[in-house]
Design brief:
Largest sheet of chain A: 2 strands, antiparallel
Radius of gyration of chain B: 26 Å
Number of strands of chain A: 2
Shape of chain A: globular
Strand order of the largest sheet of chain A: 1-2
Number of helices of chain B: 14
Largest sheet of chain B: 12 strands, mixed
Largest interface: A-B, 67 and 68 residues
Oligomer: heterodimer
Shape of chain B: globular
Helix content of chain B: 25-40%
Radius of gyration of chain A: 24 Å
Structural class of chain B: alpha+beta
Distance between the termini of chain A: 7 Å
Number of strands of chain B: 20
Chain lengths: 315, 524
Amino acid sequence: MAGYILKRLISAIPVLFGISIIVFIIMAMIPGDPATAILGSYATPENVEKLNRDLGLDKPMVQRYFIWLGNMLQGDFGRSFSLNRAVLDEVLDRFGATLILAGTAFVLCSILGIAAGVVSAARQYGLADKAITFAVLLGISIPSFFLGMMMILIFAVKLRWFPVSGMWPIYGARDLPALISHLTLPAFALAVVATGVIARLSRSAMLEVLRQDFIRTARAKGVHERSVIWRHALRAAMVSIIPVLGVQAGFVLSGAVYIEMVFQWPGVGRMLVGAILKRDILLVQGGVVFVAACYVLFNIAVDVAQSLLDPRIKT
Amino acid sequence: MTLLKLTRRAMLAAGAATALVLSPLMASAQTPSDVLIVGQIAEPKALDPAAVTAVNDFRILMNVYDGLVRYKDGTLEVEPSLATSWDISEDGTVYTFNLRDGVIFHDGSAFNADAVKFNFDRMLDENHPYHNTGPFPLSFFFSAVENVEVVDDMTVRFTLNAPYAPFLSNLAYPTGLIVSPVAVEQHGAEFGRNPSGTGAFKFAEWRSNEAVVIEANADYWDGAPELQAVVFRPITDANTRTAEMLAGGIDLMVEVPPVALSEFQGETYTVHEQAGPHVWFLILNAKEGPFADVRVRQAANYAINKEAIVNDVLEGTAAVAAGPTPPAFAWAYNESLEPYPYDPDKARKLLAEAGAEGAELTFYVTEGGSGMLDPIAMGTAIQADLQAIGLTVNIETYEWNTFLGEVNPGLEGKADMAEMAWMTNDPDTLPFLALRTNAWPDQGGFNSGYYSNPKVDELLEAARAATDQAERARLYQEMQVIVQEDAPWVFVANWKQNAVTSDHVENFSLQPSFFLLLDDVTKN
């Protein structure tokens, strides 16, 4: 097992290396340079040239890449010029917020999605199945940013049950209840689409399992139906559900960009959008590499979890 | 079986717990009564006035710092601030300022002539020990400054390399605000997060991506502010900003999207409007193609229904522009100027005279950008108006930074017209950078449409060298008449900045400078 994990970790290195090259080239190719973005109306060639020199952007591209890579390998991600702050500090701050949001949404969509899928499969073609299928279809079809805006209108502006935006209250304690009240709307808005996808796939995975012989055996032995479904069938179905969860985790993480914009969540997605618009090269590069590394690690973790659950998967 | 029961029980418990946890929150959303919460459009970059360029950041800075001079309330004319008076030499190159006595920076150090010299040397002198706390992107506002001398403790002298009339208004601009040398020495590159000035409010706290908090400076030389503190919250999404205002999460909201204004009718809110030193125009390529003929340029000015654009597309958040200088520069604006009327028949006649009927035009449109208002909808309306007089207009749309990269180097060989907007602090800036012959892109200017009129060049050079405001005003007014007639641009709109305040907020007004001044505001 340890060997398998190590092998997977080593294979991630070229992936990250490739990502660093791609994001660097994209940022170098993208029209409009940081100096122009900073100077706006005042971007005369003369001013741009001077500012580029101050920002260290006058060196050749290849040289710049290796300076960046070398610094990064020593843990120095550089300094964001648009925020005037060390890139790594900013990314870590922001990534924590994204993890809280995406993590909560992920737990929500996993629990709700699997539960809905299981109930749906257990009552195939029944009223519950039809209702859930309808709700799931609706959930998948609504863009999350629109849903988020509607949730703000209803639950924050009209009913005033939750705050509109942000992660912490401006005044008052920064404690768990405060966090939960700020987190509820964005986490649900973010979870909806993934819940739908997970519910649909859980349903078909469960239906597959429910047709198998060991289920019939269990029922023949007189095991209670609830136990058959939730204990015997679900455990077997999890093997095909877990990879879906892994993929959905990626979607939740990337979907967080929209939700963070709508709810002004101080996460890494909103940071990256702002950084791209301001052509804050180091912040974009550092942020993307960091998120990519986390995503790669998470995928490895999913594969490991799957191989633990299903001994048939060779390590 | 047990599993499901457990789940039910757990869900009930979880639900109850959530309700318990949330119940006190409903009541605690209120903020202290003498603290103003402002909904900003973005996280500031830094609170170092020499290092920032965005209006968004200026809105905070103007409350924390003072300059040697400032704009008189409600105008764009300068008045004394940290300098109590000044003399300008005959030839307009030497400015001597007498400084205000007894002013103390928030960090406790004294404001004096050395502090002023430190500020400008830091920005302008590459060998200054704290020049590395930059970069200072707008330092060219003071590129005419040759040196700054300390005459005595309370007198400072600026020598310019040539007469440069906008110098005083540039000092009133945020780039000219005075920071505490002691704080710069103490914090170095981190000064932008640990600011110290002489202003009505002093910096208290910056929570990244959440809020910047400033607190009243009880010792402010111009009278302590009424508010105890101001909190600036960055809320980039305009819809979310509107929702926060409606939900009571903020007391003051800037840059209200036109479509959201209707939400704030009624007694609970006050909508504020103020025309600013902004002009939205179309650059016309006067070097080649149909617009090389002045009659076609004038035809475009007649053909475009500017009233419809400001009233319908922009929902009244802008006024029709008459010429290159915004009316907000009241002292330099030519009141006799009338906007080109909407007259498609006259436009068709001019086109026919020029033999340009049915010409095909390439039109650069941007998706957004500072001061660009609603560029796609405006571009589409303009396209329709020009097509109504028989011109074929092909729109090409670009993201803002890409757009600037296409437009700033000049339109030659690429396009016939392009959208553009400028917001400036002196009537000199825009025409000097974008209408002179010596400001063609190949010479480092922004005259992307290659307009050239020797008389205009002469007037602008003379206005820059004049130190008498009345004389400058006369020159600018003459320039405006010629430029309107020559029509190097289509003059479209002057943006009215807006803001909404809740009924708790009093004594608030917007400034034509677009700065946000909060020292007189109260909240009950």
